[in-house]
Batch of 3 targets.
Target 1
Amino acid sequence: MEIHLHREIDKLKSKILSLGDMVEENLLNSIKAVENNDIELAKGVMELDNKIDNMELEVEEDCLKILALHQPVAIDLRLIVAILKINSDLERIGDLAGNIAELVTMKQIGDSSDPLFDFTAMAKLSRGMVKDSLESLVNMNSEIAFKVCKDDDRVDKMYYEMRDKINEEISKTPQKSAYLISHLTVYRMLERVADHATNIAEDVIYMIEGDIVRHRM
Amino acid sequence: MAKELKIITDDLNFYYGEKQALFNISIELPAKEVTALIGPSGCGKSTFLRVLNRMNDIIDGTRSTGVVTIDGEDITGKDIDLVALRKRVGMVFQKSNPFPKSIFENIAYGPKIHGMTDKEELSALVEKSLTQAALWDEVKDRLGDKALNLSGGQQQRLCIARALAVEPEILLMDEPASALDPKATTRIENLIGELKGEYTIIIVTHNMQQAARVSDNTAFFYEGRLIEFGLTKGIFTKPANKRTEDYVTGRFG
């Protein structure tokens, strides 16, 4: 029984899950900061992002250590490889949350309740995908992971619709273009968040089923 | 493209007296590739290996049922010429076992038994075999020295050269590197990589990483049964059977 290896893997699992919690919380706060135009909250998001970055490095080092010292195979190998990739996707989501928050602190967002935008719906869907992808990881549930992959199409569609709408609006009211572009940027970031959540879900599917489903769905 | 098959067993059972050691083994081993046999102690992998050159015959009370063919020819019959069979199916053991003779004589012994007398021909064969076993450069100036004075790793390569000297088609290796240090182990593993393509190699190893490194195919044995057989890269990334997964990940065995 490779007790050492499995003890290390258990530690690694709980570390990636707490990283996931932090990222999820930060994403939620960045969305709230946009919704309420809350500059203080946005600053907090940017601060926590440093912690997320440090934790990402720690997880990566732990993975490399396990690979070097234990040479895991089969499910253990797939788990480590998946965690390595999930780790960097989580860090990227963290960065995107930080970028959204930065736009708030730069006072570029203003009133997000403009009936032009449906910010809340898209934010909810993207954030839900992050939550679900982490849940599929915790519960080793590929069904939830497959659902996340499907949701990505909905987010993409929302983004493209919003982009067209904003395009149109810019040509109508060019004096509002700076404000409109900032909003488009937020949507773009949420769309990227959904992409990273999809990556996580695909890695979970790989870990469980041993099949690489990327670029297939 | 279908692989050329070298060894095929069909419903092979093997018994040491009353005790059955192998159960219904049906497997098809490709030619000129390396197949690793893995499994916990007592799982039957070494017994299986020794079936392939009838090495078990030297143990009283052993018998087998089922078919074992090499190039389509059944080798389990009573009238099989065992000397000829073992010329085709060479073997290297866990512990190197050079003859207490010179390096040259160790290699030339087999070919001589099989009727080679010409000195020049023998010398050429000794050089070729030692070169194949990656030992030539280390010993070419002292072929008359006692083989037992070589280091452990060199002795093991000498035994591989000795097996190669009779120009076998199949090379059976039973834990060939388990008594060697990492450097000597690497040399043996590199050697296996060089020899495949020319020989069909079956290797028994307890070292899972070694199996993963050197073999094309892996067979997992457990309690006398063949649990899973497939491409090594599959067995070590995505085994189909739960017991295989538990074994290769060190969860039991």
Target 2
Amino acid sequence: MAIALETQVVTKQYENAGQAIRAVDEVSVNVKAGEFVALIGPSGSGKTTLLALLAGLLRPTGGNIFIDGSPLWQMSDKDRTQFRGEKIGFIFQSSNLVPYLSALENVELMLKLNGRLDKSGREWAKELLDQLGLKDRMGNLPSQMSGGQQQRVAIARALVHEPAVVLADEPTASLDTERAYQVVQTLATLIHAQNRAGIMVTHDLRMTRWVDKVIRMTDGKVAQIIESKGEIEAYSRGSEH
Amino acid sequence: MVTDTIQNQVRTLPRNIKKRRVQIGLPVSIHLALKEIWRNKGRFFLISSVVALITLLVLFIAGLTEGLGQGNREYIENLNAQLVVYQDKADLSIPTSRMSLATVRQLRQVEGVEAVGAVAFSNVSIPLPGGKPPLKISLIGVLPGEPGEPVVNQGQGLRSKRADETVIDAGVAQRTGLKVGDVLTVRSTVGSKEQLYDLRIVGIAPSSQYFIAPSIFVPYITWDKVRPQPLATSQTGEDPDVSFNVAAVRLNNTADAKAMSKTINNSVKEIIAVDLQTAYENTPGYSAQQSTLGLMRIFTLLIGLLVIGGFFRIQTMQKVAQIGVLKAIGTSSASIAFSSIVQIFSVNSFGVVFGALLTFGLALGLPSAVPIRFVGSAIASSLIALLVIGPIGGLASIQVLLKAEPLRALGLAS
């Protein structure tokens, strides 16, 4: 499998009261196409900061980030914004849908941003929502849907434009356990089926049961990478107990 | 189960949408702007209604400014003369200025002067039938056939200096229903007593308001008889020594008004000659009234600016997180800013058009006594100002959304 996302000794350092704080400290990881990775760690371990760096929303203090082979931080701001719209799919914690667009319009927005909203694009957006069990909800506004349904719309929006990488920031934070399982399982299924590279930040270790790799961060550093299926399962089961 | 459905149905993106093709629908910025307006119709209609009310107010003020201004200056502005001559000590005040026929004769001797007419102003009223309140009018005494007497568009002009006849303006004709050949009764006062005078209408002139009142024109000796007077005077066969207010001077070369006013001032003692604009701008209360109404108009526009600016700024601040998400998923700041401009322009334009229609609808029902006049240039300038204040007011909100960070989508901020 080709590497879709790669970081080379990426560092993000802040100055606070004259003291240097490294939120992300020389992190080097890679995620292949078709691979779903969980980024875990305690609060303040730097996982959301790393996600922001990978998304091109936060400039690293040092190191390089490549998405689909392109150096993210060697682009102009304008090019990076366009690149983000083309190559990255986002799923945020909650309330991430545009409130005045229907479910279908929210999904179509990504195609519109990329100049791809033609008839077949619209059909594909509808099909994706259909696959996610939202056939009857396409015309609904986010306020007319449950949290789980909204997150499934967000998954469709994150995947519809064929991104190289899907970044999910605590996508189950506002959901109950059953819906959280459903959302992550759906996301994993689609990432694998569509051969995308997926990274999910989560503090809920039970959600790691559907991922291929777990990266555990502590104090801005990669403390552990778990790739064995058995170990990952044990990890997620252990958290349940 | 949703997941089972997905596992059975998943497929990759169809090949035919991999290439960029002609998009369906509107560009992103316009799409977002119009969808937000459509899905929040109530909120946006409310602000459009406020803009409409501001438009109504601005247009009425503009109409009132023009109507009152015209009511004060119409007679002087349409004088068939180029200069108005005052007594020099009168400080360009028509009621204060006094002038005799001797001065008029001196003015006629000045080279370059074609004709000079004396003009005297007073106020009387016309009793109206049916218990209606009397119509207050300007009584203007003129020298028949000389500058100061208006050009009639029906009937004929005044024929002799002492005949009991009158030329009425269109305003008097419209409000009284009188026509050429009818007898007009005017009510005046002599001492503390009311006195009625009958005047035969010989002609009707275009509207010639003076002092916010329609006018009638009478020969100067008749004027001296009819005008309100402190004591009764008996007119003999000789011409009375009528005291006029000003003289209207028509020049041989109408383009030479400025130079001629200097020549006249140097040639005749104790007078001052000014052009028509200076004359009507010095009509008592005219400048104060116009500047007050102009100020009201500016303040109303400023209120509009603040209302629109405030609304869009508050709305933008409420959706900073949502703008952060839009930026994070790849919407450019330019698209978001343009979307906001489209919204501001749409809401403002709708409000202005709605307000303009409302104004003209209401204006149709206004009684003719209300001094409101809608003039193309004044309305156009007001509408342009109203259309411009929206985007200006919205600039502050655009600054907010340009500064909104996409990092907020992740709950982070730099």
Target 3
Amino acid sequence: MADPALHVKDLQFTHAGGAFALAVPDLRIDAGEHVLLAGGSGRGKSTLLQLVAGLRDPQGGSIEVGGVRMTALEGAARDRARGRRIGMVFQTFNLLHGFTAAENLLAALMFSDVPAPQHEERALGLLKALGIPDPDADVDRLSVGQQQRVAVARALAARPALVLADEPTASLDPAHAAEAMDLIQRACRDAGAALLCTSHDPAMRGRFARVEDIERFARGAAA
Amino acid sequence: MSRTLTDTRIVLRSLQARPLSTWVTVGMVGVSVGLLLVLLGMRTASREAFDRGSGNTHLLVSADPSPLVAVLNGIFYANAPANPIPWAKYQQIRGSFPWLWAIPTQQGDSYRGFPTMATSADFLTKFEPVAGEPWKLREGRLFERPFEIVLGAAAAKGSGLRMGQEVFLTHGSGSSREGGDEHAGHVHTEYPFKVVGILEPSGSAHDRALFVDLESSWILHAFDRREREGNHAKVGPADLVDADRMVTGILLRLPTRPGSDASAAMQQQFDTLRRDTSIVVAQPAQQIQRLFEIVSNVDGLFIGMAVVVLVSSAVSTMLALYNSMAARTRQVAVLRVLGASQGRVFGMVVTESLLIGFGGAALGVVMALVGGIAASAWLRASIGLVIDPALDARSTVIVAGGAVALSALAGMLPAWRAYQVPVADSLRPAA
């Protein structure tokens, strides 16, 4: 049986200020599965994604991504594992400004286990598939929609097992939000990557076969 | 070739993103490296230039007040020596030891501000203005009889004199009356000198001089003496008396075998000659060393200032990078999310600092080279001083390497700031 894209077991996390805590007894996302993590703002959705990405340290429990136990890794090894197994999409895209669209993908490929000779082909192929006409355009000259496509392409560049999308539609109107989610889900499906997407927008629930509510895991007052 | 991104390319992009800050910082490092190299180069070059004038002379005898003044006057033409040495004293010294040569010199006259050196033919055939580099004629021949004149290269260029022209020397070392200086000494209009030769540049102070036969000079001054006595008749060699036969310096060289060290014998002769209180004896090399010791404090001050400028440029690099980190926190956080380790991000910032150091060092070396060539050309044209504009390889490596090392050190604090960027907090949407 294939390793799950994500397996969180007995995770314990208390925010430094004690404002809120997360307790995740068991959360499993299969390879290629798309899951919405729903819930109100400040309940810990982003924090859970950061824990999964290894950007925060939990007080207990384990997190496995694509069969690699992230919580057992430290420092550069954890950074390397994140670069190889996890793609991230942010609300504000967080592109590398001053770099071209292609370079944003090449930056992700730098830290992946994709062989260097394949980097260019991989980056250009993804950008073409996601409708970016000029891969050498500076990302600051692209439209907002194109920037989002570059962000999605970058998240998939390293052939990750899991894509974490943190409120990717929070700043968009409903029409554009639907368009953006179409893009993310289609791209992940095409790449065979699992998707864990957070959103406080109830309209998003209908797009996912599986919805997990953060309230299941949240402990304490809202942050 | 397929496109890939490397750490260095990311660093270059970061530098390109801040062109003004980058170029100003590189420029500051460049100016400080260039300044330090020029100062070090000029120190070495000026020392070499001073070393050139004394050539293959072992000892210099004069009646000047001190050995240093004797060298400055007799070799670098600082002033005309005021006190003469009788010809009999010259003969006594020449006969006191089997010198390889003992060349009499007399200074005091000039032409358009260029000093005249009255001497024997040995000055142009045996004395080498730069050890191992004898005089070379560019045009004509050496003087063979009285009232023939041979021009140093800078004197020829500066005076505009050409072969075959006749000139009148001026008594004294200032500008001649022909040049409009009323305070200069009188012009020896009774005795024209004919230009018979022009020398190649030697890279020494002698290039500014005009060389004439010693007897010519004695005749000029014998004529002056007789005029003061009311006798206006022209003077010939037969009219010279002992009071006319004066010299102002004697260049001495001991006999040496190739590869042998003459210092012990030289010291012995030096001590012997010093017992004569009517003369001053100088070892030119020793006096030049003393001159540099005197000015070494000022020299050290300049070098110290240049080092301070270099350190200041490193501090500027550090501040420029450190301040830029505030605006680049998100970029660092993105790189971390993509898989860059803290160490790799630290290395990128230090590399950025190193590249600024490399760029500045390269710019500084170019500036020093161009500045050195310009200064060398100006010194050669204006005072005939030949300074090698080439940079000393050791100094260049030390200064450029030091600048790069300082830049790398300056990058440590900003790199530490990048190392500590809180990734999760830095990726939040701006409020």
